[in-house]
Amino acid sequence: MRVYLLFLSLFFCSLTFAQNTITGFVTDSNNQPIPGANIKVVGDSSGTVADFDGSFKLQSSKKLPFVIEVTSVGFGSKKVTISSANQKVSVQLLDEENKLDEIVVSASRTPERVIESPVTIERMGIADIKKSASATFYEGLENLKEVQMNTSSLTFKSINTRGFATVANTRFMQLVDGMDNSSPLLNFVLGNMIGVSEIDVQSVELLPGASSALYGANAFNGILFMNSKSPFTSQGITAYAKYGQTVQNAAGSNDYVDYGIRIAHAFSPKFAAKANFTYMRGTDWYATNYKDKTVVGRDRSNPNYDGINVYGDEVSTNLKGVGQSLAALGLIPVGAINLLPDYNVSRTGYDETSLTDNKASNTKIDFSLHYKPFENDFEIIWQSKFGYGNAVYQGANRYYLNDFFMQQHKLELKGKNFFVRGYTTNEDGGKSYDMLFTGINVNRVWKDDKTWFGQYAGQYVTSTLGGATPEQAHIAARSVADTGRLIPGTAAFKSAFNSVISEASVLSGSKLVDNSKIYHTDVNYNFKDLIDFAEIQVGGSYREYELNSHGRIYTDANGPIHYNDYGAYTQLTKKLLDDRLKFTGSVRYDKSKNFDGNISPRLSLVYSGGENKKHNFRASYQTGFRNPSTQDQYIGFNVGNAVLLGSAPDNLTRYSETLPVSTAVGQAFAGSANVVVTGLNAYNNSYTASSVAALSASGNPAVLKKTNVNYVKPEQVKAFELGYRSFLNGVSVDLNGYYNIYNDFIGNLNVVAPLYGTAQDAPNPLAGPINAGTQSIHALQNGNFRAYQLYTNTDVEIKSMGFGVGLSKKVYKDFEVGVNYNYAEFKFDQAKDPSFEAGFNTPKHRVKASFGNEKLFDNFGFNVSGRWNSEYLWQSTMVDGMIDAATVIDAQINYNILKLKSTIKLGASNIGGKEYTQVLGAGLIGQQFFASWTINP
Prior knowledge:
The longest helix has 17 residues, at 449-465. By secondary structure, this protein is mainly beta. 50% of the residues are buried. It has 15 helices and 53 strands. Mean pLDDT is 91; it is low at 1-17. The chain has a 22-stranded antiparallel barrel. β2 and β3 (47-49) form a beta hairpin.
């Protein structure tokens, strides 16, 4: 009780501490208000932000006199001396193109101007968000240089920088207020589903290259920082509401709703709090790609059709093998076996649109408490974030994340030169399910595979004996086998569907179960006030994983899997030659439970030339590494046509399944009608999938190649970068080029393990039935095998290179034009590793442009942005193929209603209307129209 009373007395003392109150207005050269201008007390942590009408109110306990500094993007800064309490000031800022003078922190973990950053960095601020023509600020990130979005769903977009990314971009990191947004189970970011509200964004910073030297192993190919507003400086109630429609040929026109509110208040200079709530709902882009996954030109008329967005047709078997089984049971004459073709047929699948309601939604809630107990920058922060919603994630299959829930909680202590933070991330899969297994098991609820294929084979024989052609016989056979099939929309289908998605076992269900967690700690200290020679920082991190999919995705059926990693770093920054040359050197050591430690150094030089130091040249070299993800190590996920298998040694022995052996001969070779296989079979007794495909095409066993693969280990990169930033005749110029060398690149290898016999190079089919190699051939030719997708490294060196050009200028009064171009390519000798997929998934050419004026006339602004990319190869665990070139134009107009402190915006995305794709297998992206109303305090 005494402690409680002491806390209350300290709290109320802080509320009544002596303060000076300064009020005023911030305007531009035309006496128009500058909302969002930053007002800060020089040498103190006190500060605020100008309201919608340019007014501000600043409270400070600093003794008079003191100086305030007023800044805003696009304007020069100004300092004003405050000499009396309750002083009213009027500040006029002059227009100035100063984007390269903006302050960023992420590049070096210390405040510095963009123009002085040692590496390429992109930034989006409050003014940029207002100008964005995209429906959300997160989608607007695609207009930044070097960003390529991978859109899996209306609510799930993944950022790709510098290549080698699918929707599951494990090489990219996203931090929101210092917290890693990655899913504990999946190891990649789920877009902005648990990110930050657009009315709470203070700034967004993007480092597109390797950042392992400061941020650890996951910051391998880029990192995004989203920083929210402080309730000390941004107070009041802010709200927005959007309504619009999405338009797609497959889905039609559907409503889109998005609204949110932010409440923040500083109760005193010592205590402040804020809370955010946002809600969005719409109809997802329908995925209706009915091309065959593996054979170009094959359609539903083919007996072994396997459509990209069709599920259940993955179940396939050799028709002659079915005939042999039927003959052994006496159901057809032995002679009828020869009437059956020696190739596979597949079951009839269900379209994706029948297996999901295509509803997309996202609810985000967060709150934070901020306490400054002393008269300095020391601050204690508690923050909680909650994200909830529906989306479609595409990995090896398409997964409907239904009622997916994720939460984060953070305690942070920070000051002028340090921070210590700890946070936890928890997730719950909710009612999520795998659409592929939904299709497979809805079929099986109605009719088991043996019965269906038996009926198919029996009718094929009957039709052939009746004089039908093979094509006619297949049509008749499928019609008979499909008699009574469950039809989408019927009560029987709904009952089977609900039963399947509520069951986790892939033998009868499709539910995804996940209750995984991450516990993470970061610490950093900057010695700049203690050491004069140079600016020196030290820091470190520790992370504990608790994987808990209850055996559905990982091999954790008997309990959660625990593993950890940790790291430490130091950095030295020194300015030389009259502060024209800045040297930065850093080194980091990281250690993961299953792997040896790695050291990542980074060296960079920035030289500021010219009379005003406005010509900035930069060069950097760094090495980086990426530890295999939790999936790479511990997954044991049956995706229907294959098993995704991680290579941690204990994982291979934990993964086990019992599989049936077809044909009497096969059962004799196996010694049983069923065999038990483990993950060791995949690595030690398998053939490469490419050689098995060659066997199927040629019939020649000499093409078979035994798998020779090592367990996955960390991949490494050597990254070289050059850049230049300046103002040339009023034009903001940003040039960069990079060259990366990857070794031990992590990727996937598809293999096929026979259920009996021994895999070997070019086995001899004439060696006799007791020969293990001959038996393995028989297993492959009769469907007695298990396909796996392994996580491993290629021995072949991979290189990527690219360059970018960014230009912007105010061309007439307040009209601003921006354009940027990016070139990217990679080199990989596929002939040296035919079965390995690098998955670069990035266009060689990208062009982006914008044109706008936020002051076209009183309170009215507009912006038009466009982007184009060349066609490119898409490679993923689900499907490979080409993605067409695309041109997309977005536009918005906005009007400020000063009396209501409001902004009205009308916007449209993809106004040209031509649908395009960014992820092969996901829905085509159509048009989006919206109207929004934002109320600022």
